[in-house]
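Protocol step 4 of 6: structure prediction from sequence.
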Amino acid sequence: MFMTAKKTKQYAVCVYNRGYEVSLEKRKIYQVTTDKTAEQKSLLRVKDESGQTYLYPAKFFILIKLPQTVAKVFGKAA
């Protein structure tokens, strides 16, 4: 049996939402899902409250590293 490393969740804060004001809230923290194809097109895949993921321009976000205690709380809420 092989052990797999636990995948660390990534988060980003929205800093710009022009054209997506209904979908994105500035200063809100979103969970980011890895999507290599989207990244090649300068897009970021983010998860909303419903658990659905959507693509947005990467420049709308700043990736952040949450303290471990905060990341645990976010992970439970997601």
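Step 5 (inspection) to follow. The mean pLDDT is 86.
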